[in-house]
Amino acid sequence: MDINVKKLVKDAGAALSRVVQLTEETLGTSEKTELDAHLEHLADRANATKTWTEKILRNMEAVLTPNPGNRIEDFFYEKIDKKKPNRLSNLEYVGMDMIEAGNDFGPGIAYGSALNKVGQCQQKLGQIERNFIKDAANCYIQPLRKFLEGEMKTVTKEMSILENKRLDLDACKNRVRKARSMLGQQSESGVSPEVLLDQAERELRVAQSEFDRQAEIVKLLLEGVSSSQAGHLRCLHEFVEAQARYYAQCHAAMQDLQRELAGLSGGPYHPTTPPTSSVSGNDDEQLARVLCDFSASNSEELSVVKNEVITVIEIPGDEDYVIGISGMKRGKVPAVYLELIDASQRKFSQ
């Protein structure tokens, strides 16, 4: 292996010079070149963005995957580029036990039948929860992690290079001041002070040029960090859409379970929460459950799956189709494939 001795010596000398300069600055015996106010402001904003993004990401991961052991396992599988294990949720485990207990007691008796129905609902809720966790990871966690591991790592690296260029610049300034102070004196090295001053000034010009160029690079990167918040805002909207869809699906599943249990026991159905017609607050929007799968045949239509809960908007003058909204996607869906969740309007007019 070829070793460039001259480069190693040069790099070692530069590193030593930076250490000396930093030590003198710490002791207050040497001046420090300050960054311009705009660059300092951008750096402060970037550090704040990095700090809060890391906190939000950690908390979001803890909410979606409360078990720290599972988080470590998922992290390990991501690093080795392996598919994560398809583990069941706690609700699905509860549902399995309830179904087994119901079958053991006997589905012919009221309690056994109720256990079966509740267990099936818990399994459905567990699947809905897993889908939400997957959606949240794709639309929010992964973009934030990519930002930290990509853009912010590059910024941190370039900021470190800028700090080294600043130390080199200040070391050159010190050498120029020292060379000027020796004018008219005899040099110990045998080289005239004028020659030493000329060499120090040339090195200073080079160091100043490299520092200025690196400062511009860092400034551009920091401005990019500020603009990245627009992308994070879009991700946040997608996360809220996924969360709203998750709670709407859970609400619909629990209302179905309440009706089934009321019918099973022969008692009246008293929902614990009033039915809602919209998750967005728009009076023209309603929630609807998909009765069977529908595959879009063109770009104007929306593909939906059975039991999915979507937001719908009726199309004036069109009784056959409605506008369906699922997350960030929207399109036409046949009305006969849907059932309104609002108890006052069970189905679309045919």
Automatic annotation (TrEMBL):
Residues 145-217 form a coiled coil. Residues 24-270 form the BAR domain. It comes from the Eukaryota. Keywords: Coiled coil, SH3 domain. SUPFAM superfamilies: BAR/IMD domain-like, SH3-domain. Pfam families: BAR, SH3_9. Residues 283-343 form the SH3 domain. InterPro entries: AH/BAR_dom_sf (IPR027267), BAR_dom (IPR004148), Endophilin_SH3RF (IPR050384), SH3-like_dom_sf (IPR036028), SH3_domain (IPR001452). SMART domains: BAR, SH3. Belongs to the endophilin family. This is Endophilin-B1.
